Every structure is written in structure tokens, then in C-alpha cells.
Amino acid sequence: MIEFVLGESDLVDVRFAVSPLNELTLSLRVLKNPARHPLHLPFARRIRDVDTEVLLALSNERGWTPDFLSPRPHSPFTRIEDEFAALREVSTRTMRRDLRAVLGDVPTVLRDRDRMLTALENYWQVALAGQWDRMRAILEADIAHRGREMVQHGLAAMFSGISERITFVSPVVRVLIKGAEPRRVEAGGQGITLVPSLFALRTAVPVDPGARPLLIYAARGAGTVWESGRARGPAALAGVLGRVRADLLAELGEPRSSTDIARHAGVTTSAVNQHLRALRDAGLLASQRHGRSVVYLRTELGEALVSHSLGRGSSAPDPSFHRT
């Protein structure tokens, strides 16, 4: 059990952020044990020819990695270039301390820091750079969802919605981490940062004494990131709405941004927006702005149409997502 004690100033400084380097680090677990990550088997097949000697040495048998690979991001718009630059500023002493904490000793293959850092940068380019825009869009959609939950239902509901292993009874956030030593951390006015991840199976809590508390959790929609084709709307629905709009409605069972949809479909954002606005005006989609993006999701009516045309009962849409 790890406990974060939040003071009054911390309670008003709960932030969400995205970290490309954290995603890279957590993806190493897929390299280590692909069978435990069935959602990411397409990713595992893509990177099977990567030189993994250095990368595999960075985690222990439980998948834990050194804390210097889990930076504290400051916004949803963090760039990997900035995180790599900051990583190169970390002292060799700190790196070796963190490696020993996880591995017990520093393996020979990790004693050459330049080789280790270069391996991480090359891995990013080969494995993740080409998918990062899509990954970021899914992570931002998750942040939008959590933010709405926090505003509409409060911090306790938002934390419990992230994971059943997390509880919040003011002023303490409790995180159940199997095998972790009990820790009680005073936030001390630094607030807390919540980071969604597509590679996290459960909650991860890198504890760095004196640093801002960080909680990494499994994002919604992780299973869609490696999809190679678009969802197809039911033929009956296409006969009423047209093929393009039926396909869009079928895709939006989870929140997605117009930019992400357009990129996935290989068309312009303006072309997609025309159809999305028409579906929204008809009451089939709800939209909500998140930063520079507009995120869409099926309404109850849209869910009912898709479900009925597929011959199954409708499932309730996200109750925290309201039409704007």
C-alpha cells in the first residue's frame, strides 16, 4: 500500500499529463513478456527485430524499471525531445542508484550510459514515433473523460474510476500495489500528477523522495491503438445515414478527437468535421472541447441506433460525457 497525503493546496493541484518517455518505458514490459499484453501483440510483432539487449536489461522480473525513466511531466503536450534532453542531464550517480534499487546491481550492458541512452532513442524512432500522434489522441481523450468525472462527481469517484486499487478518503489517496513496501508520502504542497498510459496493466507509482507525487494508470481505449482498419457501420444504418456517417458512428463507442479520426481514415480534418457536426446536430453524437481538440462520443440515441442495427441491446454511454 502506498499512501499520498494531500494538503489543502494539493487538493486544488491535481493535474493530468502525458509523458512519451513513460510510454516508452512501460512498453518495455511488452518486450519482456508479450504474452501478458495481448492487446499489444501487433506492437510486439512490429518490434521483434529490434536489438533488445540493452532494453530488456532495464527491467526486473516483475517489470519494474528505474525511476529515472519515469519523469514527472508537466502538461498533456510534453514532447519526447524535451524528455530525452532532460534524461541526458540526469547524473550517472542517480542512474546507477535507481538501477540498483530495481536490479540489485548494474548489469554490464547498462554501465555504458551513452549506449543505454542511444538505445532508448533509437527504440523510440523504430517502435513508437510513427504511432505517437494516434497514441496521444487516445491519451488526451482519456484525460478529458477523467476531468469530467472529477468535475461532476468529485475526486473520490474520479480516483476509484481509474482503478479499483485506488481509493481516496480526504486527505489520503491509497494505492494498492502488490509486492510494494508500504510507503506514506506527504505531498507537501506539490500537488499530484496523474498520467494515463496505453501500456500500463495496472497502476504504477514511482516514488522519488521530495519529488511531486506521480500516479500512472491504464488509459481507456488502449486496445484501439494498433487497429489497422476503421470500424464499419451496420449495412442497415448505412442505408439511412450513408456509409461514411454510419462508419463514423460505429467508431465512436469510445471518445475520439476529430483529428485522430481524420488521421486514421487518411482524410482531412475539415472533411470529417462536416460529418461529425451533422451527426451531433442530429443528436447521435456529443462533443466536448479538450485543449486544441474536439472529442466526440455516441449519445444514448446514437448507441441505441448502432445496437439495434446490430441486433443487440444497447449499452449505456459514458454518463459523464455531455453534449455541448
TrEMBL record:
In this chain the HTH arsR-type domain maps to 236-310
UniProt keyword annotations, A-Z: DNA-binding, Transcription, Transcription regulation
Tell me if Transcription regulation is a UniProt keyword of this record: yes
- What CDD domains has UniProt attached to this entry? HTH_ARSR
Pfam families given in the database record: DUF5937 (PF19361), HTH_20 (PF12840)
Q: Which InterPro entries match?
A: ArsR-like_HTH, DUF5937, HTH_ArsR_DNA-bd_dom, Metal_resp_trans_reg, WH-like_DNA-bd_sf, WH_DNA-bd_sf
Q: Which Gene3D superfamilies match?
A: Winged helix-like DNA-binding domain superfamily/Winged helix DNA-binding domain (1.10.10.10)
Q: Which SMART domains match?
A: HTH_ARSR
GO MF annotations, alphabetized: DNA binding; DNA-binding transcription factor activity
Name of this protein: HTH arsR-type domain-containing protein
- Species source reads Lentzea aerocolonigenes (Lechevalieria aerocolonigenes)
